[in-house]
Predict the structure.
Amino acid sequence: MTAAKKFLDSNFLLQTKTAELLYHVYAEPLPLVDFHCHLPVERIASNQPFENITELWLTGDHYKWRAMRANGTPEKYISGDASAEEKFFHWACAVPYTLRNPLFHWAHLELSRVFGIEKLLNEASAREIYRQCNEKLRQPGFSPRGILLHMNVETVCTTDDPTDDLEFHQKIRKSHFTVRILPGFRPDRVLETEHPGQFNAYLDKLSAAAGTEIRTYEELLETLRNRIDYFHQQGCRLSDHGLEHLFNGGYTEKQLKAAFKQIREKKTLDQQGALELKAAILRELCKMYHLKGWVQQFHLGAIRNNNTRIRRLIGQDAGTDSIGDFPQSRELSRFLDGLDLEDRLARTILYNVNPADNEVFATMAANFNDGSTLGKVQWGPAWWFMDQKEGMERQLNTLSAMNLLSRFVGMVTDSRSFLSYPRHEYFRRILCNLLGRDAENGELPDDIPLLGKMCVNICYQNAKDYFGF
């Protein structure tokens, strides 16, 4: 009987000698390019140490919150007023029940790679691990910047609202921090045309940030153009949109101006009018991105904030989101095609949260490459509910079959946590295991330099070249 492999050893997830070689020689040493995350940039700017492991690890982490709720943990110990140690203890009690959930792997990778703790986290070890982590967090190397350096992060792209003055990005740049921290333009709130109250309140905020009046549709577009110019001056080279699906419209300029006037008068548009205005604003934004040479990202398909009780108690992004079953292909095709016809289609990354859409997104991305750049339209990495072993393998296999895996831009954290960077390691191990298995099965050449170069490109170089970092 073959001896069982040790959990989380140096060859974790690597099932062949070729996979081990590809990972340890080619993938493991590479810096990390995290081109989409939600790290709090003000924390990087201040470099303020974390008070305890609970603040660093559990605050705002909806993945862990969902697991704790499923395990019967009272909300007091999740988002409530319990002490930091009590919250950590209840998370530790839940961890053994996350076996075969990616959280079990992630939690122990994070403890190991950041804190050097190899023990399993559970009820018995919770107090000791809490103490060990907190002792290390008092050391300079475990500040926000220290963790980024320790994890070999080269570039981070944050997610920032157009109204943001990017003060903290400026402070970081002036401090000469060696990790490149760049803003990302996320204008989702300017598309909330179906909610006049929210839309108008946001436009007033945008107007104040830009120092301009927004009374007409033309003034809105000019203000957005000015904000994009400002973000570009601050190093921004990409945008991002989190939408249920893409949308298209056919209103004339006159109709759009009238619709905008109506909503600014605090009148509710009918469903078609709201959709037409939303589609027009998004289309104009995409043309601006193309003019600036940015990359545009579309995260599509999530149905968010499903639990009204939790939303009222905590607010948005509290761990009550799920996979939506929205139709995607037809409107996605029309949207990309419309921009392509005008030669206004920027480099684009498409993310789907519904695995049923994998083949749709892989084949759709391949429709709009034009030879201007390698892999101009990308099917992005396995996102959110799919960023686990099976989801990543499905994504990589589908991409291989229907597009060019060799030109793939690789993994992101999409996280608010400074401890999430082992997700890049997780992805790299899974990729190397797939390639190594295929090579040893005779499905790929036994050519280590060829396969090694592919690993380097997917894990690092493709993203660096694609974004121009």
About this structure: The chain has a mean pLDDT of 97. The first strand starts at residue 32 and ends at 34. The first helix runs from residue 17 to 27.
